[in-house]
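Quick start: what a row looks like.
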Amino acid sequence: MLVITEAMRVCDSHVWARMLVSRLLAFEAGHGALGSGGSINAAGLATHGIYALRNGLLAGGALFSVIGGELHIRVAYVMPGQRGRGIFSAVHRKLERHAAELGAGAIRVSTYAFEAPHVYSGPGYDRRSVGKGHGSGHDRIYFAKTIIGTAGKEAGNA
């Protein structure tokens, strides 16, 4: 059974947030992309978290913040044994609803090319730019998606 839960505050002591960040850092380190500390800095900027639990265990989630009318995904990760089971899709649907409720006009995210940039093409993100050789020489891809508010107007123009 998949349960999506939300924490309105993310802090260093939150066990799920720490697990997401530690798993992402280990994954990035395995690809030689630990030099910039980008994920550590990004996680420190997060103010909210959405977590996917399967059978009471963390399956994945996202840490994010809302700044200037935009929702910024700081960390997103799905545990390796849970990939391909709709975890990211479920978390993303919750992120979109949350963004619309907050009146955010867009969701923004960046990811390394070796991570999973393809997951953002399905939910309608536009690829905005590529930072060549970011961090430890890996390309960083930047995506954005316009959010339609609950009243059917772009939330940023309501």
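That is the whole record. The two ends are 37 Å apart (CA to CA). The domain at 2-157 is CATH 3.40.630.30 (Aminopeptidase).
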